């Protein structure tokens, strides 16, 4: 059998191809043992894992239900432990999860295979999980699955799934490497989501609620009541772009977001400005920050000013989309936006520190998202080159 393109140092042996049934046993809850939803418990000592609890190759225990002991004891072959590999066989086929962090006895509901390694001396569980989680299984399943609208993965199909196998030592290296990549990807995904939630929370707490003049959360040293100010009084200009700038493509022009066309030109220099999408259907009122030399199409309202960090986040909190109107594609008009009153701090220093705070949150969100994308690209490359 051929060798992979990317390999850990010191490994030169040929790989061999084995069937999944040669390496593992597979069991699922048999039909007459199927659970009714009325038997699902919200708490208990015996956890029930279903395919809907799979989350990115792991089990989300917070979504799991529980069952009575007699249901857990019914079939030892589907009693789950840390290190178990699970594969969905109904609905969304071929999803794979590796069980870890389990702290209580657990069993399976219908629709999931429990895959148990026969010989741990020759098969590494993390390697097998990563191979099953790679696109190979999903491609195989999509061709072989039976049924009409609702597909079903028969065990008779899964047993013949071919797996490329190096020696156990090399399996362990590959499995550990890919698992570490998964951990890093999950870490940055979680950090990204946590920071997004923090930003959303702070946008709610650091701006006054309707009818109030001070926010719930505030930086130390600021006590003055906020005031309503017309948007046009706080910026240099609010205007709509001109329709003549409509060229698209690479080079001179680029697409901003999904609709707004901008181009570079020395006659326009909007350092610190941001653009507001004005006529884009469901995306009407979406904000984009942009600095540089640009031309604006008539799909956008642009706001010109010097220090707009605070105002950008104030408009995010305000939700400009509520100003949009029209029975066809929603529209936000510059004339309406100019007269809009928005609550603002009296002191410039408070605006500045708030703008910096939210800008730093956005920087962290971007940082974690980019790192996550980079790691996912690395993993995609390795899956294509570390296996045969």
Supply the number of helical segments: 10
Overall outline = elongated
Mean pLDDT: 85
The Cα radius of gyration reads 28 Å
What amount of the residues lies in strands? 15-25%
Describe the largest sheet.
4 strands, antiparallel
Number of strands: 21
Helix content: 25-40%
Low-confidence parts, pLDDT < 50 over ≥5 residues?
243-269
Task: Give an overview of the whole structure.
With 388 residues, the chain is of the alpha+beta class. It has ten helices and 21 strands. Strands 2-11-8-9 form a four-stranded antiparallel β-sheet. It starts with 15 loop residues before the first strand and ends with a helix. About 7% of the residues have low confidence.
Q: What keywords describe this structure?
A:
alpha+beta; 33% helix; 388 residues; elongated; four-stranded mixed β-sheet; 21 strands; 10 helices; four-stranded antiparallel β-sheet
Strand-helix topology:
Elements: E1 16-19, H1 20-23, E2 24-27, E3 47-49, E4 54-55, E5 58-59, E6 65-66, H2 69-73, E7 79-80, E8 85-88, E9 96-98, E10 106-108, E11 112-117, H3 125-133, H4 135-144, H5 155-158, E12 162-165, H6 168-205, E13 227-230, H7 231-234, E14 237-240, E15 253-256, E16 260-263, E17 274-277, E18 287-289, E19 295-296, E20 300-304, H8 309-318, H9 334-338, E21 341-344, H10 348-385
Parallel strand pairs: 3-10
Antiparallel strand pairs: 1-12, 2-11, 3-6, 4-5, 7-10, 8-9, 8-11, 13-21, 14-20, 15-16, 16-19, 17-18, 17-20
Summarize, please.
The chain has 388 residues and is of the alpha+beta class. The protein is 33% helix and 19% strand.
